[in-house]
Amino acid sequence: MAVTRERLTRALAPKVVAVIGDKQASGYNWLRSMKDFDGPVYSVQVDENEIPGIEELGIPNYKSLTDIPDQVDFAVCAVPRQVAPFIVQGCVEANVGGVTLFTSGFAETGEEIGVELQDKIYEIAAPSGLALIGPNCMGLHVPGLGVRFNRDQPAGVQGNVGFVSQSGTHGMNFSLTGAAHGLYCSTLVSFGNGIILEAADYLEYLADDPQTEVIGMYIEGARDGQRLFRTLREVAAKKPVIIWKGGQTEGGGRAIRSHTASLASDQAIWEAMIRQVGAVAVHNLDEMIDVVKATLLTKRTQGNRLGLIAMTGGQSVVLTDAFEKAGWKVPTLSDESYAQLAEFFNIIGGSYRNPLDAAGTIGQDPKHLDTIFDILNTDENIDAVGMELSATFMARRWQDKPEEFDRLIGSLKKFMAESDKPFLAALHPSHVEEAALTARQRLQEEGIATFPSFERAANALRKASTLAAV
Amino acid sequence: MAADVIAAARSEQRTLLSEVEAKALLASAGVSVTETRLARSIDEAAAHAAELGYPVALKVVSDKITHKTDVGGVELGVADEESLRAACERIHERVIAAVPDAQAQGVSVQPMAEQGVEVILGITQDQQFGPVLMFGLGGVFVEVLKDVAFRIVPLEPRDASEMVREIQGFPILEGVRGQPAANLEAIESMLLQLSEFAEAHPEIAELDLNPVFARPDGAIAVDARILLTSDS
Questions:
Q1: Which among A257, A260, A271 is the top mutation candidate for probing chain B, defined by the most B β-carbons within 10 Å of its own β-carbon?
Q2: What mean pLDDT comes out for the span A209-222?
Q3: How many domains are contained in chain A?
Q4: Which value does ipTM take for this structure?
Q5: Would the N or C end of chain B have less CB density within 10 A of its end CB?
Q6: How far does Cα A346 stand from its chain's mean position?
Q7: Containing structural domain, residue A243
Q8: Quick one: how many helices (H) and strands (E) in chain B?
């Protein structure tokens, strides 16, 4: 029996949660991670030595799932592998919506006992319609409901990034590092061995989830590649999908006699598949965060011509290099723009060719930045605007004179509100990292797409602009 | 027709189809290939050539031989019957020398196709995604530069259009240095035919059409290699 959408929704957006088999030895990680859950949390533990510690946390403990006086929607199970089939049986009997099996030691070990236990779990869960997540996974994180598997994950904040991960670590890292970049998950699922529900099931859920605006995925391989391909083709037409493919699988011992077969490496096929469905490929966590950020915070453009604002001549040069290497053009501005810029631009130690080397001009009168933005907004040679925010020169000054930073933020937001052209900023790490961090956090809170290098900014905007869904 | 060719290979426990079989299979699916006939004797080769029209290409047919050029099994641009008889003798001598147990069934005879930009189209089976299509420039481009594009089957028309334009060498297809542009629609429709062909024949493990001549007036496969899956 297939898992129904209603059952899956109960599991992924639960009203009642149970944690099965949490222990002192793990610091009651699972129970503590649920402390901000927006609803009742129950514990199931039969070990008399563990129960007092659980009750000290203020969480009611029961010896069996069926004893819980509530209908459990989502259960976390962290029991030894031999016990796992019995717990899954209990979930079926108690009509639990879904269960995540943190327990590992199954088919991924290659051991006979692991494979047997996994098969047993499958045989119990499959006919019942139970939404089984895993095994060998971290499970579910829904910050809006306070569902967490790690205590550093955010709770009480409604995110808009759906994330599907075959790996617990990469899912967790996205939720933690992403949050530090101001990116919060709507729903994150780490699905491990995925014996009942696999990536395609979660993608379909996220495609229909109104909270999810963009979908990220970390994947190493697909059991049913055709289903994943067809699902992605549908999902990526609705919402932007960003895919990080980890690992290279072996071609196997097949007889290769053709050019086609010898060139069809795992990486080549995955990259082609990702392009074909209208998703975009990324290759590490940083790039995932950058492209999700650009997708959420910048407008889309069909064009590839960038207007750039730098703070020094040297940065003008490397800013241009970074964007052109990523496939952008940095053209000359229109004659009309030059005529307008000539009226006020300080060309002593500055230049207004493109990039505009503008620190002196803006320093003279901050209103000039608004004028520059107006000119770039109307210039027909320009499709998008990028700006260097120099922590090296400015972070201390922003610290000393916060009103100047407020003014800068105001100018950026005014341009973003008035123009259809995407805007992004680069703020490199600097020698005054504490002040730069404050500035970075503020930019993030204001919803300004800020990247830690020109290269990352250029790449993120490029990749975001190739997505099928906008 | 298609079933006959595959059944014949299966009954002989062969996985590699001959060029003649492969082209017959492709032609039955509507894919443009040069008409290619099997000749078991020199007289038969001469008769085929007379019907197909000179000049012709001759290639050894043996399921022991995958790369026919490497063993001297190919003669191109054979102009008349006298040259054809001599060419058949040369192929025989060279192949016997290179592969003593070749057990050649004969030679294939096909008219020399009008040249175009050499491209390669292929099918392979991916463990995860099933049949996959490849497109690239043929000859040295595929051998050395590996300048190719892949798509998962089934292809939509947009996929065919995009994969043709995705390769680095795409400007060559548009015509460089006075060379005429290749007919891109013809390449794209051949890709879409192969996508359907791959869906219809899951028993095809690997296929290379190399080269296909991409010309202003169309595209035609002048060599074809098909390998069946080992399980029937």
A1: A260
A2: 96
A3: 3
A4: 0.89
A5: N
A6: 42
A7: 137-297
A8: 8, 10
